[in-house]
Design goal:
The complex is a heterodimer of chains A (275) and B (271).
Chain A lengths: L8 E8 L9 E8 L4 E5 L6 H8 L7 E6 L2 E2 L5 H10 E4 L11 H7 L8 H6 L6 H13 L15 H15 L3 E5 L7 H18 L2 E5 L3 H7 L2 E6 L2 E6 L6 H8 L11 H10 L1
Parallel strand pairs in A: 3-8, 3-9, 6-7, 7-8
Antiparallel strand pairs in A: 1-2, 1-4, 4-5, 9-10
Helix pairs in contact in A: 3-6, 5-6, 6-7, 8-10
Chain B lengths: L5 H5 L12 H21 L4 H6 L1 H9 L9 H32 L8 H16 L2 H12 L3 H25 L3 H8 L5 H35 L8 H9 L3 H29 L1
């Protein structure tokens, strides 16, 4: 699978203020993310993690500053160019956001919608896809180990399976950047592990940029190259996982993040992964 | 018995804020309703005594219906088929009217607030005007017969279904729509994949319900010249052919019951 090259993502002094809210969601955020980095955004609920991702996906626009993918300023995207941007950005959501009543294969094929041209675009409106597109969908499903569920209605799958379908969908989409908004927050430990590893594997194999919000510090430590810490809309930490000291965690969360007695979750995940 | 909850249950009673009294509001509401219904009774000349006093007349009237005459039953049966066909094509027309109106009149899909407003008002008008009024208009326009009836039913039902469709669309799960839009899908693709699968079962159920209701409407729309069994219903009752009228009513009841049973089955299978 050949994705187009990941762009350098530059956030230049961005701020996001929601109308009617006194406190801004994001304040003066400047970060440059090199192509191929696996970035975890951590912070408490309401720190602005999801808002940041929504700005990057252009689901919403920044109030001040600019976000650039290579040279393209996201604020200037309209119509066709905006849809092209969305095609280049693969979204993973906490609640999967799959169309629940459709069979699994259709949800994977939805990933292809932005890639279709000419007659295929029109045929897709009646849920018709040609052999080549279907073959891509089957391969992507096989890649996440769910080929046996291909004809099943999506809402009959477990949460972990649905998130893997969502990953198959963005594999079909061939994005240049993956944005994952709390990808494992609704999943149990072992499913969370599968999802994070799949993301990590895709990122490493294809060399694609992944930006994931995570509220589990240990998950961020285990999988990310670089960690951004947000606190009420401000960037208070930017560095490698090894730099995430207790002091840094206190700065981000405003309290000491205590590890559960015995093993940390990261270690447990590591063991599960090894087994 | 002492449990871990005892300390909570047995503690000193906390001072609870006073419960707001609703007595005044209840009395006001009761009084208002009594006045409204009382006045309405005067307007409709509600005199239940007369119903009992004249019960004999009712008996005489009904006795004529106890002996249905089946001389013209073939013609009446055929007119029932005509009625069914009016309802069928009326529903098809209603779909053609309601789908575009419903899409444009859904706040979350409408391309512009003005379009939304216009679509909503058009649907309001179609619903506000009764199908019999439409039938009177179409009889003038295209002449007496089933075609006028079918147009009238379709236009009115189109407004009803359009409103139901737009409200169903407004209640879809936005996450599932966002999941489709996020891959860079176009507006029509978002509708085809994100919206249609979510609204289809409910909408289908509404269409079938309205089809049942259209059969009942179609069975009387002939009274104003819209074709179907309604004309004979009107004609036989007005000319005191009680036996004939009884046959017509029996046929209508049988038809409506059959359709309701079939339609209920289809609806259950579709959902």
């Amino acid at each position: 699978m050949v994705a187009d090259r990941s762009p350098a993502v530059a956030l230049d002094g961005i701020a996001k203020i929601f109308p009617g809210k006194a406190a801004p969601a994001l304040v003066d955020l400047s970060v440059t993310i090199e192509p191929g980095q696996f970035v975890a955004v951590i912070g408490k609920s309401g720190a602005g993690k999801t808002t940041l991702l929504r700005c990057l996906s252009r689901a919403t626009t920044v109030t001040r500053g600019a976000i650039r993918f290579d040279q393209t300023d996201l604020a200037e995207l309209r119509g066709r160019a905006l849809r092209a941007h969305r095609t280049r950005v693969g979204m993973i959501y906490q609640q999967f956001n799959l169309v629940r009543r459709l069979p699994v294969v259709d949800n994977v094929l939805i990933g292809r919608l932005g890639r279709l041209g000419g007659f295929e675009r029109w045929a897709a409106l009646v849920h018709h896809f040609d052999q080549a597109q279907r073959a891509i969908a089957f391969r992507c499903l096989d890649h996440v180990g769910l080929l046996d569920r291909v004809w099943q209605r999506t809402d009959t799958l477990s949460g972990g399976e649905q998130q893997r379908v969502a990953i198959a969908k963005i594999l079909a989409q061939e994005p240049a950047v993956i944005l994952a908004d709390e990808p494992v927050a609704s999943l149990d430990l072992s499913n969370g592990r599968v999802v994070m590893q799949t993301l990590r594997r895709v990122a490493s194999a294809v060399g694609i940029t992944v930006i994931a919000t995570l509220h589990h510090v240990e998950l961020a430590r285990s999988y990310a190259d670089r960690i951004l810490g947000l606190k009420v809309g401000r960037l208070v930490f930017d560095g490698p996982a090894s730099g995430l000291t207790d002091a840094a965690l206190f700065e981000i969360f405003g309290e000491f993040v205590t590890e559960p007695a015995g093993q940390s979750e990261g270690e447990r995940l590591g063991e599960l992964a090894a087994s | 018995m002492s449990t871990a909850f005892t300390s909570i249950h047995a503690g000193p009673a906390p001072s609870v804020p006073a419960k707001p009294s609703a007595v005044g509001r209840t009395m006001l509401a009761t009084l208002t309703l009594a006045v409204v219904f009382g006045l309405a009774a005067r307007v409709v000349e509600l005199r239940p005594i007369e119903l009992f006093r004249d019960i004999g007349n009712v008996g005489v009237f009904l006795r004529g219906y106890l002996h249905p005459s089946f001389g013209n039953v073939g013609e009446y049966a055929w007119q029932c088929v005509v009625t069914l066909c009016i309802a069928l094509w009326g529903t098809v027309l209603a779909l053609l009217v309601s789908v575009p109106l419903g899409l444009l009149g859904a706040r979350n899909l409408s391309p512009h607030p003005l379009v939304y407003f216009a679509a909503r008002r058009v649907m309001d008008v179609l619903r506000a005007v009764n199908e019999f009024v439409f039938a009177l208009m179409f009889v003038t326009a295209v002449g007496l017969g089933p075609f006028a009836g079918m147009l009238a039913l379709g236009i009115h039902t189109g407004g009803v279904l359009g409103k139901l469709l737009s409200e169903t669309i407004e209640s879809v799960d936005p996450g599932q729509v966002e999941g489709v839009a996020a891959v860079g899908a176009g507006r029509l693709q978002v509708i085809a994949f994100g919206v249609v699968p979510q609204v289809l079962p409910n909408f289908l159920s509404y269409v079938l319900l309205r089809f049942e209701s259209d059969i009942r409407s179609a069975s009387v729309i002939g009274m104003v010249g819209g074709g179907g069994i309604g004309f004979y219903l009107w004609d036989t009752i007005r000319s005191f052919k009680d036996g004939e009228a009884a046959t017509v009513i029996l046929l209508i009841v049988a038809m409506v019951m059959c359709i309701d049973v079939v339609s209920a089955r289809v609806r259950r299978a579709a959902i």
